[in-house]
Known about the structure:
Elements: H1 13-16, E1 23-27, E2 30-33, E3 38-41, H2 44-47, H3 56-69, H4 81-93, E4 100-104, H5 107-124, E5 132-136, H6 145-150, H7 154-157, E6 167-170, H8 175-185, E7 190-195, H9 211-222, E8 225-229, H10 243-247, E9 253-256, E10 268-272, H11 274-281, H12 299-314, H13 317-333, E11 341-346, E12 352-356, H14 362-371, E13 374-375, E14 377-379, E15 383-386, H15 394-409
Parallel strand pairs: 3-13, 5-6, 5-7, 7-8, 8-9
Antiparallel strand pairs: 1-2, 2-3, 4-10, 9-10, 11-12, 12-15, 14-15
The site of pyridoxal-5'-phosphate has 15 residues, from helix 5.
Amino acid sequence: METTALWHSQARMGTVKSSERVIARGEGAYVWDEEGNRLLDVPASLWYCNIGHGRAELAEAAARQMRTLAAYSNFQQFTSRPSLELAERLVAIAPVENAKVFLGSGGSDMVDFAAKLARRTWQLRGETQRLTIVTREQSYHGLHGFGTSIGGLAANRAGYGPLIEDTARVPHDDAEALERLVRDRGAETIAAFFCEPVIGTGGVHPPGEGYLRRVEEICRAHGIVFVVDEVITGFGRAGEMFASDRFGIRPDILLTAKGITSGYAPLGAAMVAAPLWEPFWDDGAELTFHHGLTYSGHATACAVAMANIDVLEREELAARVRALEPKLARTLGQLRDDPRVAEMRGGIGLLGAVQLRDPAWGPRVAAECIANGVLMRVIEGGALQVSPPFVVDEDDIDLIGAVIADALEALPLEMPLGAASLPQPSSQ
Ligand code: PLP
C-alpha cells in the first residue's frame, strides 16, 4: 500500500514508498529520526553538512535576512546586498585569478552555467567547432540537462534517447588518455574539460600523483576551458578551503554548492577567471550572457553562506579535516583485511569509500550499520560512502570503523542476497 505522496530522488519508489525513514532533527555530527533513533551522519546527508547540524547562528542569519528582505532577483541591474557581499568574499578566497562570481541554487545549476559559458565563449571567439565537453568516466556533475549529458555514470544517462551532443569521456586517472583524445579529435573541436578533484558520487576516487596538474597543463596547451567541479570538495572537505589549493591547480571556472552553506540553504556559486568574463563586462560590449535563474543570488541563501563561511574560518574546520585525515584513512584501512572488502579508497580529507567485493552486499551492510546507530549510504559500484561532518571527533571515527566491521562480520561470506526491499546503491 502506498504511504507517501513524495517522489524521492534516485529511488525505486516501488520499495521506498512504504519504507521511508524520516530524519527529524540534527545536532553536530548526529541526526535523529522520527522514531527517536540517534544516528551518526556518516554521509553528512548528501556530502554537504560540513559544519554539522543544528547551528543556531545560521538560523539567526537566515531569520535576520528574511525579516529584512528574504530575496530579490539579480536579473538586469537588480540585486541584494548579501549577493554582493558573498561574491566579494568568494573572490577573496577562491583560487581563481581576478574572479567574478555567478550564483545559482545548487551544483547542477553551476554545471549548466559552466558548460554554456564555455561553449558561448568559443562561439564568440569564432571557433564555432569547439563544442565538445570532455569529462571523466565515473564522474558526476549533477542531473540538469548538461550534467546528465556529460556525466560519467552510465545509469544517469540511460533511457532518455538522445541527450546533448558533443560530449566525450576519458578514463578518470589517465592524463595521457585526455591528451590522446585531444590529438585524435583535434583541439579545435573541444570546448572544455570538467573534473572533480576527488571523484565523489562515482565511488570516491582521489587523483593519482600529479594527475590534476597534468590535465591542467593539457588544457592550457590546447586552449581548453578547465572547469573544476568542487561541489563536494569545496569549503574544506579535502583539508583545504578548496581542493584546487591542495593540488596546486588554477581553474578557469571553479564550481561550488553543498558546503557553501553546509546545506542550511540551497545555493551554488561559480568563480570565473578573467578571460571568460571580460567579453561580457567590457564597457563598450553589447553582449548579454543569456543565462540566469530565479533564485540566482537569493539573499537569504547568501546570508546563510556567509554565516557558514564565518564558522568554517573561525573554527578552522579545514585544518581540522586535515588533522583527522590520517585517522579516517587508518580506521578505514583496517577494514581492508576483511575478505568481504575489495578495497578502501580515500586518504584525502574526510572522504572515503569502503568498496565491497560484491556490490549487492551494500544495502545489507548499510541497513546493519543504520540499525547500530551509524547512518550509511551506498554509492556507485557498491561502496560505502564515508564523508562525515567536520565536527566528528576521533571517537566518532572509531565508531564508524567498528560498526562497519561488525556489519561486515554479520554478512555470510557466500550470500544470495534478496535485497529487493532494501535501499539500492545510488547514482547520486
Ligand atoms: N557536481 C558534483 C561533483 C556533485 O557531487 C553534485 C551533487 O552531488 C553536483 C555537481 C550536483 O549538485 P546538485 O545536486 O546541488 O545540483
